Amino acid sequence: MTKHAKPDHPVLDVLTKRWSPYVYSDRAVSEDDLRSLFEAVRWAASSYNEQPWRYVVATQADPAAFERLLSCLNEPNQAWARRASVLALGIVSTRFARNGKPNPAAVHDLGLGAGNLLAEATARGIDVHQMIGIFPDRARELYALPEDSEAVTALAIGYAGEPDSADSGHGDRDRAPRTRKPLAEFVFGEAFGAPAGWL
Amino acid sequence: MTKHAKPDHPVLDVLTKRWSPYVYSDRAVSEDDLRSLFEAVRWAASSYNEQPWRYVVATQADPAAFERLLSCLNEPNQAWARRASVLALGIVSTRFARNGKPNPAAVHDLGLGAGNLLAEATARGIDVHQMIGIFPDRARELYALPEDSEAVTALAIGYAGEPDSADSGHGDRDRAPRTRKPLAEFVFGEAFGAPAGWL
Predict the structure, then answer these.
(1) Touching B: A residues 178-197, CB under 8 Å
(2) A180: distance to nearest CA of chain B, Å?
(3) Which residues of B touch A196 (CB under 8 A)?
(4) Is residue A179 a part of any domain in this protein?
(5) Average pLDDT in chain B
(6) Which of these, A83, A107, A184, A191, is most buried using a 10 Å CB contact count?
(7) A-chain residues within 8 Å CB-CB of B109?
(8) Could you tell me if B7 lies within 8 Å of chain A, comparing CB atoms?
């Protein structure tokens, strides 16, 4: 299944084709593709080039490792994410390596890294659905996260499946149309809430 | 000037060509391009499709508005960012619109939106340099940000200039090679710090 955005202004195909499915097929993501997905993260921008992103990754090829990572997701997310080919935890290093001070951009920059991963995945026909609903403490315990690191997101990585192949709740979510606010609701000029004049 | 990454594994051109310059030329970014940059943000993923990103944008075409936005950047950032064609503040809505509860993904998702903007900009030959060094309280006051919104980043948007056209400090930064950690330092398998087996 594919589900393309219909933008009001022209944007790249890798942005309109990106979509977060709930239903995954059983097709495996190759190791070549995985390497390129994380290489894409590697070249993201970050504050002071700190590169605060860290990932723990598990694939269906190692069922025990996959189940372990799955257990860090909350139950509603476990229900659909267990069908994805690959799971990853998105972790941030919360302090600057060079001076130990808190990095106020760490979580934002994890998002920048993920943006790169999503673009690379979309270009390869791979779908990614991110989650904030995880158990960070469980992740800390299972993977021995150091004190200055924190699990923030999880990523389900794979190929979207047919909505009919899943229970109706997840299938219906995948069939629902894509919706977004118009630009005038979030791009402002003179003051917050006042749309920019050039919109 | 351009400054391409040399990736270890193949990734999209819009990711290798992305780069955050300090030196900008005086070429203006068109309104068509600006609309597409924020349209790119619009289609980013966000937790519960909350779309927590908000932007205040000012261009050199309106010098008073530009100076006002520039004053929200810290002094070291003002020194180089004043040459960019466009400045924007990246703001998050910190609570879910539908229930008023805190959105733990808001700052992460601002990063996802920025990732889209950067990809679209790069495809158009436009350069963006983001900053975390801003005065959020000044932004709140100048633009009447509501209590549940917070300025997190600033973005300088324009066309990279020649390093020689700037003072040596900023020119030298633009001439420095691009460096990144190897994948094995941030993509793990069995435990934090243990490189994934497929790397």
Answers:
(1) 179-181, 183, 186-193, 196
(2) 7
(3) 57
(4) no
(5) 96
(6) A107
(7) 111
(8) yes
Nearest CA in chain A to B64: A190
CA distance A184 to B35: 11
The pLDDT tens digits of the residues spanning A87-103 come to: 999 999 999 999 999 99
pLDDT at position A168: 79
pLDDT of residue A49: 97
- Asked if residue B70 belongs to a domain, the reply is yes
Q: Which of A60, A158, A178, A47 is nearest to A113 (CA)?
A: A47
| Record: contact A115-B120, CB cut-off 8 A | no
Supply the range of the domain harboring residue B130: 13-161
In chain A, % helix, strand, coil (3-state, to 5) comes to 35, 20, 45
Which pLDDT tens digit goes with each residue over A70-86?
999 999 999 999 999 99
Would residue A3 count as lying in a domain? no
Burial class (CB in 10 A: 0-12, 13-18, 19+), B106: buried
Q: Tell whether A25 is covered by a domain.
A: yes
Three-state DSSP class for residue A44: coil
Neighbours of B30 (CB within 10 A): 13
Cβ contact, residue pair A180, B43, below 8 Å: yes
Report the CATH number at residue B104. Answer: 3.40.109.10
The structural domain count of chain A equals 1
